[in-house]
Please model this.
Amino acid sequence: MKQGLKLKNYWLLALITCTLLMACSSDDDEMMQPSPLATHLGFDRQNPLIFSIDADYAPLEFVDENGTPQGFDVEFTGLLMKRLGIPFTYHPNSWKNVAPDIIHGNVDLGMMIYSPYRKDSTNYSRAVFRLYYQVVYPKKSDDERFDFRNLEGKRIAYMNSRPVGELLTSEGAVKFSVTNLDQAMCDLVKGKYDAVICYRYQARYLIDLHHFDNLLTDDISLPPREYCYVSHSKQLIHFIDRELLKMEMEGVTDEVYTIKSTFGGIRIPSWVWYLLGGIAILALIIINVIYSMSRKQLEKANIVLEKGNQELKQRNEELVIAREKALESDRMKSAFIQNMTHQIRTPLNIVTGFAQVINNDYETLPKDEIKMMVGQMMKNTDVITAIITKLIDLSIQESRHSIEKQDFVSCNNLCREAIRRVSFTHQDTVKVDVETTVPDSLLILTDKIVILKVLHELLSNADQFTPSGSITLGCYQPDEATVCFSVTDTGQGIPEEYRPKIFTKFFKPNEFSEGLGLGLTLCQTAVEQMGGNIRLDETYTTGARFIITLPLK
Model:
């Protein structure tokens, strides 16, 4: 009950914080005190950050009749800069000037659609939200819809976009690249065009603004685009990414951007619902495991606290230790929930995004594209399944004291099989090898499945952090009773300050990296339950080397 109240208080505090931030937002930044971060990045009141906006890109960015910047981006950026403590000013311009200014670094920050063609010339943040394409066309009869299978000779206007332009060219349409979408919609009503392609939120905004009741809209089968912050400063984007994640988790992003993706009354195929239902069940299992683990830890801490209260004078030191453990447990729980939210949301977004794309025009999509999308959906479902598998492995390991060893296997054969089971991602630049000084006849009594899982985890970690060089799985015998397995790489290594924590449950040096922070914990627990030990060789300095020592019997 206390845990539930504590979580409710967290959400209430987050809601109050968001409300206060929105209430205090203003275009006047004269009173903002520059934060240490702002000073570090070189911004102050005399030299504020310049945020470039499109003067005619409603409803995200525009300038009203009084010359005041307005729109969702203006409001959201105001909140973001105040949270970061960075003084800033808006710099309205036309889009033909905004984009070059951002790309060439003439301004400090802007917002635009992610493009793989521009990723090497500037820096993009994580997606603020996703944009979906829609076609707008005049209503002719109740039954007639816009036919995207026959665009030959049709006059279609669109804001400059490579995917849209390539689609229209391939279908033989007459293209009109426009810079003023508002005027294009008015020209559509007058009959200048057969259709206009824009993003869903633009279509809804302009139709409502001008009361174009005679216009219809349909989604088109183009992948959604990501709307991001962009800057030449990699450092600035790094800090913006961190704050965007917090704002998304606190609900601030949804509070500001009220642009929602809807199904628009379209019937969803039953298999999509089954898939989403399965994902929901997986998410519930994960949540149940998280809370089960947290509850056990808190119950243990409460027992210690109650006993300490009965013997307060004699057990004061134990009470202090118990309180520290309870606080650490709560901190680990909060950090783990945030990590799980990030790890699960990414594959969920991919699955949901492709499901919407398939649903929008299921009948007309080529089979190979559908097959590719379904493959991606299954791949990301496997990612979620892998997360659950690690949590279940941890739960099983914590419930047992030892592993029953029933397999007599060759140490060298274990090494060779472990190498075969890993799909190395840098085969052209990384040499993978087995180095052993023991004979093939040397056998070990073990649990073959468990030891292969441990070696697979260590080899996969080495592969992740070694883009070039070598990865070596070694085997040697320090004495007659034991054998050692070593995994050595020439990758980036482990910084000295992180080495005491690497086997700690849920620890990750980089909170935004993939994974749960459980891999090395599972390895250590499994090796110890087989009567051995695992350690980081701190004398090795050209990468990382982990050494497993196991008894032969």
In short: Confidence is low (pLDDT under 50) at residues 1-30, 259-268. Residues 488 and 545 are 4 Å apart (CA to CA). The two ends are 48 Å apart (CA to CA). The longest helix spans residues 316-360.
